[in-house]
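Comment thread on ticket #2218

A.B. wrote:
> Attaching the input chain for the structure job we discussed in standup.
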Amino acid sequence: MKTLLIVHHTPSPSLRAMYEAVRAGAGTDEVEGVRVEARAALTASPVDVLAADGYLLGSPVNLGYLSGALKHFFDQVYYPCLDETARRPFGAYLHGNNDATGAVRALESITTGLRWRAVRPPLAITGEPGKADLESCWELGATVAAELGDV
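C.D. wrote:
> Ran it. Output below, let me know if you need it in another format.
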């Protein structure tokens, strides 16, 4: 069985709603053979990353950048996981109040350095997430899970 690791920093109600939608999509009955594990960004470790076959990353956008918690996660796992996790699939969802451009750019830079493979471009939602936004989060989770499992 493959493992999909969700690494998230979820301090707000908007991010909680996005996380729940992503997790529901990742756990859809349409995809078999994938176990979903979730870790808070401040507690996720290289062991978690090495044990997973793909990743979903969630973060608020703080001052135009990734949250310190997700940046801390990347700082902890970068070198221990660099060679072992190349080409593994990932997806990401970000939430900001107005502009997420800097956070998207940082995420792409870090994951390019890790040589992870984006299943689709990062989902950046600004403002209060609406129904269509949460459906996009669900689709993101299902898409990354489908990359690992049997559809």
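A.B. wrote:
> Thanks. Noting for the ticket: Residues 2-148 form a domain with the Rossmann fold fold (CATH 3.40.50.360).
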